[in-house]
Design a protein that fits this description.
With about 160 residues, the chain is of the alpha+beta class. It has a single domain, classed as Sandwich (Immunoglobulin-like). About 25% of the residues lie in helices and about 40% in strands. Strands 1-2-3-8-4-11 form a 6-stranded mixed beta sheet, covered by helices on one side. The longest helix is centred in the first third of the chain and has 22 residues. It is globular. The N terminus is likely disordered.
Length: about 160
Amino acid sequence: MLSHRINASLFVLAVCGLFALCAAGGWAGEAKMDEDGIVKGKSEAGIAYMHGGVGVVDRQKMEEKAKAKGFTLKVNCAGTNREYLANVHIVISGSDGDKLLDVTTSGPWLYAKLPAGSYDVTATFNDEKKSFAGVKIDKGMVVLQPRWVLREEPPSH
């Protein structure tokens, strides 16, 4: 019974933390979670984005929305053993170095609707950066797949 209360408390804290991040401007521009649990917004530079994808159904819905809305970049964040990751800080800058999007993801996928051009993308997880320089956006969707080696916790005795 106590473990159920602890799990429920942790869930409530996680949800409150997510909403606090949104309210405090933890994501650039105006970001809102839709009925599917996908965070959508537009950066101060006018770049539309969405992130999330914690469950299979969520990822399917994101993929459908991305295709329908003409998103041009997908960042798929995972460990080297393909474990999906959230709380990845992603920065997209233009060729002039101006920051166009600066977000922390709520799930493993980030989509951005970038116009044709060249971009630098940096994804940071647990203080480890993965950089993609000169990402060319033209026609269709570009997919980036940053991967991190996840450190295992030592076994408890």
